[in-house]
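Hi support team,

I submitted a single chain yesterday and got back a structure, but I'm not sure I'm reading the token output correctly. Could someone confirm the output below corresponds to the sequence I sent? I've pasted both exactly as they appear in my results page.

Thanks,
R.
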Amino acid sequence: MSGVFFAGVGLGSGLFLNDRLYRGKGGYAMTVQRRLLWAATVLLGAIALGVVALSRGESVNAAWLVVAAVCVYVISYRFYGLFIATHVLQVDAARATPAVRHGDGLDYVSTNRVVLFGHHFAAIAGAGPLVGPVLAAQMGYLPGTLWILAGVVFAGAVQDMTVLFLSTRRDGRSLGDMIRSEMGPVPGGIALIEDSWVKHGGMDDRVELHGTGGVIYCDLLHGSSMETFSLDGYGYAVEKAGETKGWTFTVFEEAHIYGFPHEMRHFTQCVLNDQAPRETGEDGVATLEIIYAAYESAGTGRRIVWPYKPKKSGEVPVNLWLKA
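Hi R., thanks for writing in. Yes, this is the structure output for that exact sequence:
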């Protein structure tokens, strides 16, 4: 985490809280000249929005769009952002940020507010937020324009500012670390386990491991198959693939890939040499406990504490969910 996280920015004017403008909880001073300036900004923005909204057809000068956007953002930054900073987040200029408290020149660095604003602007600007407006542009330029303006003012910028100050007040920790501290270790150890013998489309034997230091993808079946396309279909592709038209994964040496020969060889060696198998009955019991716990958690809506023993060991696991 660099110093860009530790000074306050976003839609609100917390970035520019200083002794000249900040007057504690009493608010901000505004001279007559400032009132006239803001009134002119409001009037200019209203005129620009009126031109954009009332122009017939698709031919409208792009300058009006820019003027309308700048006016809306500036007004929202000054007033709505000020309201959030003062009354919701209760920003206090006298409250030192982690960059000041822990300044080490490496992870915690006090940064000029103008430079800091540029860092945050670059961090939140990207192509992702423009996907929605681009889709809305199919209905004309006005829906997309309103989407960008209202979405930034009431959603995007508010979220960025809120997360920023939450991070600032928690020593610059990331959102994931804050969630972990609030919800406990569960968010840091979430796993998705799917097992079904009735799923259509052929066998799917995959493992994905996501960790803080990396990720592993292991496709045990599709990684050893031929990606095949057929207009009319063909004989056999893989187990549980009832249709072979279109794209399919044709498995060769299917029994070998499933590991059947290896299983039989290992079983035979264990019997002949009186050895314990790699997979024991204890592993099977542990697997059943996981299945029971998953269904019971889904049925009751509560977290299962480990070690776990099913309350109804004679019940079919799925009924712990269906009969809840």
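A quick pointer for reading it: The chain has a mean pLDDT of 76. Let us know if anything else looks off.

Best,
Support desk
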